[in-house]
Write a structure and sequence with these properties.
This protein is an alpha+beta fold. It has 11 helices and 10 strands. Helix 7 packs antiparallel against helix 8.
Length: about 375
């Protein structure tokens, strides 16, 4: 499998990296952690003008006709700079299923607005158990005439407090159905959940929220097909964000080891520190190629649930281990908010539980292994 990047993809990486280096320094990340919205609307519009929101959308919806790998590159670079933004929820979790399952009217109504940065979207999936299993979905969707009434509570809904629309999975008489819900609809209550990562996770309560039947995404009763679609793509993109963060942690620590003087020598000259950095480098590079292989499968329309779960389980471990080892190289000061490495460490737990923790993905891997056959030579 060719895991190399095209000239255009290299240009995408360079342009995204240069923009974020200028517009999203670590001080900006700290500032937005305390901001009520949790993102910079001005930067959001600049990103839209650069075509990021529409990178994977067709030209007919004002997109730039990119592919999944292009989107992965953008999100990896965002992870590298810890960009606080509803980009992931809007593009990775919502515009992809809208493009795949939306009817003509829905695509025409929503996708150009997403590409222009005029709308923020998010996915309301998990409930009190915070897992990704269909048996844990309790939100009720009752059909009354031409409308559904949604009742229940969703938790860990990213950026719901600033979202214009939600994709909501509910349980109805047909099974599970995905709904497009305007956040201005009466009966919706949103509250930001305090988190150590300051990543604007929300609890959203639905109290007999009326949703017209025309706002069903795809077919009634087939909503879990869409959840699987979102989960496959979202998980790989979350892994890309995590490897970007791990890469940044490695670079910060490598640079620190060259500059920090102890016993009249840079600490990077000591073998113990050198070996620690080498192990971190092995971890990050190994994870990167695992993620790229999983992304290639999705790009080729042949996603592998086994490979995707392997990548996420590995990303959960590598991101956290890289940050912890980086802090050890920095010493106790690495835990402080004043040190950039501490910002990355705070993101590791949030990233681990997003789209499945290690135990969840190990269970999926074990299930896949029941039918696994080693490739023949």
């Amino acid at each position: 499998m060719d895991l190399g990047f095209s000239k255009d993809q290299k240009m995408i990486r360079t342009s995204v990296r240069e923009f974020l280096e200028m517009e999203c320094p670590s001080d900006k990340v700290r500032e937005l952690e305390e901001d009520e919205k949790g993102y910079d609307p001005e930067m959001w519009q600049m990103m839209a003008e650069l075509g990021w929101m529409g990178i994977i959308l067709p030209e007919e919806y004002d997109g730039t006709e990119g592919d999944f790998i292009d989107l992965m590159i953008v999100i990896e670079e965002m992870g590298r700079k810890l960009l606080p933004s509803p980009f992931f929820s809007t593009v990775a979790l919502c515009s992809l299923p809208l493009m795949e399952y939306g009817n003509g009217e829905q695509k025409e109504r929503f996708l150009p607005s997403i590409a222009a940065g005029e709308q923020i979207w998010t996915l309301a999936l998990t409930e009190s158990s915070a897992t990704y299993r269909p048996s844990d979905i309790k939100l009720n969707a009752a059909l009354e005439g031409e409308e559904y009434l949604l009742s229940g509570t969703k938790v860990f809904v990213p950026y719901a407090h600033v979202a214009d629309y939600l994709l909501v999975i509910g349980k109805d008489e047909d099974g599970f159905t995905m709904f497009i819900v305007d956040t201005k609809t009466q009966g919706i209550k949103t509250e930001v959940i305090p988190t150590t990562a300051h990543d604007k996770q929300c609890e959203v309560t639905f109290d007999d929220v009326k949703v017209p039947a025309r706002n069903i995404l795809g077919e009634a009763g087939r909503g879990w097909d869409m959840v699987n679609f979102i989960f496959q793509r979202g998980t790989v993109l979350k892994c890309a964000e995590m490897v970007g963060g791990a890469q940044a942690a490695l670079e910060i620590t490598n640079d620190y080891a060259k500059k920090r003087i102890q016993f009249d020598r840079p600490i990077g000259s000591f073998q113990a520190v050198q070996h620690k950095l080498a192990e971190m480098f092995i971890d990050v590079e190994g994870l990167r190629y695992l993620i790229y292989e999983a992304a290639c499968g999705i790009s080729n329309r042949s996603p592998s649930d086994l490979l995707i779960s392997i990548a996420k389980a590995k990303a959960n471990e590598v991101y956290q281990r890289t940050c912890i080892e980086s802090i050890k190289v920095h010493g106790a000061i690495g835990f402080t908010r004043e040190q950039d490495i501490g910002l990355y460490h705070l993101r590791t737990k949030a990233s681990e539980f997003a789209l499945g923790d290690s135990n969840f993905h190990r269970d999926r891997i074990a299930a896949e292994l029941e039918h696994y056959q080693a490739p023949t030579l």
